[in-house]
Amino acid sequence: MSRTIEEKREIVAELKELLSQSQLALVIDYQGLSVAEITDLRRRMRSTGTVCKKTKNTLMRIAVDGDSKWQPMTEFLKGSSVFLLVQEDMKGAIKTYEEFQKATKKTELRGGVFDGQALTLADVKALTELPTKEELMARLAGGIKAIPTKLAVGLNAVPTKLAVGIKEVPGSLVRAIKAVSEKEQDSQAA
């Protein structure tokens, strides 16, 4: 049974909404997956903040039409497509999909789109090597925390070195006077 035009418009509107909330879209060929396997994929992806959406390529093409951020996806729209719309954890979503793919050996990643750029398989794989948002925030916090520590160590060193220098002045003065008096005594003796 074919869908009505109104139903198709609702699907396109839903796709546009999902895309507006996503940071990465992956397009996979799901040929040969059973209903249970697609359900398993959806369940696995949900934990990474990813929506697994099965829809016709034509409806996705309409949803991305005119949207420069998602327009490159059109090059992957062929055959049987499932779209993984990643809203939260890109790294986790890619790794979760890879684990699913290894278990079923029935899907193939065609590519993805991130920030208006089409991604090849190698590009998608490279995203898993990037630090997560939490890791970047921890690094930044560590760097910010180190600044006051280094400043405090530097400020504490100034009075210490000043005190050592002041303490050394009388000793240096005594040595200088002694050297001058010895020189005067040597010149008087000669």
TrEMBL record:
Q: Which domain of life is it from?
A: Bacteria
Task: Kindly give the InterPro entries that the UniProt entry links to this protein.
Answer: Ribosomal_uL10, Ribosomal_uL10-like_sf, Ribosomal_uL10_bac, Ribosomal_uL10_bac_type, Ribosomal_uL10_CS_bac
Question: Gene3D superfamilies from the xrefs?
Answer: 3.30.70.1730, 6.10.250.290
Keyword set for this entry? Ribonucleoprotein, Ribosomal protein, RNA-binding, rRNA-binding
MF terms from GO for this chain are: large ribosomal subunit rRNA binding; structural constituent of ribosome
GO term, biological process aspect, one:
translation
Query: One short Pfam family name for this protein?
Result: Ribosomal_L10
List, alphabetically, the GO terms of the cellular component aspect: large ribosomal subunit
Return the SUPFAM superfamilies for the record: Ribosomal protein L10-like
Membership in a protein family: Belongs to the universal ribosomal protein uL10 family.
Q: What is known about what this protein does?
A: Forms part of the ribosomal stalk, playing a central role in the interaction of the ribosome with GTP-bound translation factors.
PANTHER family assigned to the protein according to its UniProt record, in alphabetical order: 39S RIBOSOMAL PROTEIN L10, MITOCHONDRIAL
Describe its partners and assembly state.
Part of the ribosomal stalk of the 50S ribosomal subunit. The N-terminus interacts with L11 and the large rRNA to form the base of the stalk. The C-terminus forms an elongated spine to which L12 dimers bind in a sequential fashion forming a multimeric L10(L12)X complex.
Name of the protein this chain belongs to: Large ribosomal subunit protein uL10
- Species: Iningainema tapete BLCC-T55
Q: Which gene encodes it?
A: rplJ
